[in-house]
Specification:
This protein is of the alpha/beta class. It has a single domain (about 5-310, about 360-445), classed as Alpha-Beta Barrel (TIM Barrel). Helices cover about 40% and strands about 15% of the residues. The strands form three sheets. Strands 1-2-3-4-9-10-11-13 form an eight-stranded parallel beta barrel, surrounded by seven helices. A two-stranded antiparallel ribbon has the order 5-6. Helix 4 (about 110-125) links the parallel strand 3 (about 100-105) and strand 4 (about 130-135). Helix 10 (about 305-315) packs across helix 12. The relative contact order is 0.17.
Length: about 450
């Protein structure tokens, strides 16, 4: 029997996240991303549909590998312009009670001391509804924006990330005791200095000698997301992640990744159930299969394949403009391309550009509520994932259709919640306490 399905909306604080060109659709509102009402309306819709969260992607650079310039990305609004994802969370939290927020923060571009403060602040403001998607960066354009010539090597980035995690765990977990804040009005003592300690860190990549500026928040450490698929990335996930975001073209293909991640987690001393695994899916749903198919055809009129190829070139590090439109992945000899394209399979350059413009790299399920629910249950049963990050198409109608049509169907089958669990994000996902517990490494640094 299918377990309860977890659902996150997959978005970015920009116009075109992965569905390249659909900002041109007459019903699309994604160009309103600059307005708070866009985000507050979305948050209220997601909470009405009992979504577990909104997962906010982010990049620190532009996609300039395709043709050696950012022109294609700029023309098609492919993840540029893009605003800071952290800024919209308080507004969405203010109009919701349960919706959780997974925010991407890139380790190479976020100083750990300031970043730890920002996360703690959001954890306070949201009453513990915060997750951090840990990324190590992949665009040379982002490195150049900070004065570097290129990205640090792949595995070295994860070495840096391991030390970064140790440092922020020390700040979140070890600087303040739970009872440090006493608010004694009679004696005029707000915090007991004996229960606040300085964190001293002298590592290979970071040095610190300071107390954390924030008192303990609901979760202390946020829920940790991770999305790296490489062997080194999976090792990092097995040690640190509570939720892992993966991608794949088929449930059978995803199942191998799921099994590997759970085995690695157990090998590192944690339980396989200590991680929730999400895969990326795009859904186009309408009252009937025929109407959903018509909706897909309608969307396809507005796609901009050039934007999809700019994305793929950035993900792979290979300029796909150098290949003919009918060449396939086998013609590109680098492992980077093969890894980046594995989610969509072996197709020609032309097919990638057209296919990835609706739903991005996510497999797209099209149909009536019953058809889509059948497919989601099949994915759950065959792959072993815990839920889905839903890549959007035309906003906000794609989310509204899921909430109004698909969610009731899933509920009627007993595979989707009918009410929220109370508490922090960690409590909602794992039905445990709000704080990380041993053997997770963060627990070892607690005051």
């Amino acid at each position: 029997m299918t377990q309860a399905i977890l659902l996150n909306a997959f978005h970015q604080n920009c116009v075109g996240h992965q569905s390249c060109g659909l900002w041109r659709h007459p019903r699309d509102r994604s160009a309103d991303y600059k307005n708070l009402s866009y985000w507050t309306d979305l948050a209220k819709t997601l909470e009405r549909g009992l979504f577990d969260g909104i997962f906010l992607a982010d990049v620190s650079g532009v996609y300039d590998v395709y043709e050696g310039t950012p022109d294609a990305a700029l023309r098609t609004a492919t993840q540029v312009p893009a605003n800071d994802p952290f800024t919209i969370v308080p507004a969405m939290a203010a109009v919701t009670e349960h919706l959780c927020f997974g925010i991407t923060g890139s380790i190479p571009y976020e100083p750990p001391y300031a970043f730890a403060r920002r996360i703690s602040s959001l954890d306070h403001l949201t009453s513990g509804r915060i997750a951090w998607n840990v990324v190590t960066g992949y665009l040379d354009s982002a490195a150049k924006a900070l004065g570097l010539s290129h990205q640090t090597s792949h595995d070295t980035r994860y070495d840096i990330a391991d030390e970064y995690m140790e440092l922020v765990y020390k700040l979140w977990e070890g600087s303040w005791a739970d009872d440090a804040v006493i608010q004694d009005r009679q004696r005029g003592v707000f915090a007991d200095p004996s229960k606040v300690r300085k964190i001293t860190h002298d590592g290979e990549y970071f040095k610190l000698d300071a107390i954390h500026l924030c008192e303990p928040s609901a979760q202390r450490s946020p829920v940790i997301f991770q999305a790296g698929a490489s062997p080194r990335g999976r090792q990092f996930a097995g040690r640190h992640a509570e939720c892992v975001f993966i991608a794949g073209n088929t449930p059978e293909g995803v199942a191998g990744t799921v099994s590997d991640l759970r085995n690695i987690t157990e090998d590192l001393g944690r339980a396989a159930a200590d991680i929730k695994i999400f895969t990326m899916i795009s859904i186009i749903v309408d009252e009937t299969d025929a109407l959903a198919a018509e909706k897909l055809q309608d969307y396809q009129q507005y796609v901009q394949p050039e934007g999809a190829l700019a994305l793929m070139s950035g993900w792979s590090g290979v300029d796909l403009s150098e290949y003919g439109p009918d060449e396939s992945v086998e013609n590109a000899s680098t492992q980077a391309v093969q890894s980046a394209m594995q989610a969509v399979g072996s197709r020609s350059i032309r097919e990638w550009g057209e296919l990835l413009s609706v739903g991005g790299a996510a497999p797209t399920i099209v149909g009536s509520p019953s058809t889509v629910a059948d497919q989601l249950q099949m994915w759950m049963d065959r792959s072993g994932v815990d839920g889905f990050n839903l890549s959007y198409t035309v906003m906000p109608e794609c989310i509204e259709s899921i909430v109004d049509l698909l969610v009731p169907e899933l509920q009627s089958r007993g595979v989707y919640k009918t009410r929220y669990t109370q508490g922090s994000m960690r409590e909602k996902l794992f039905h445990l306490g709000p704080r990380l517990q041993s053997p997770h490494p963060a627990a070892s640094y607690r005051f």
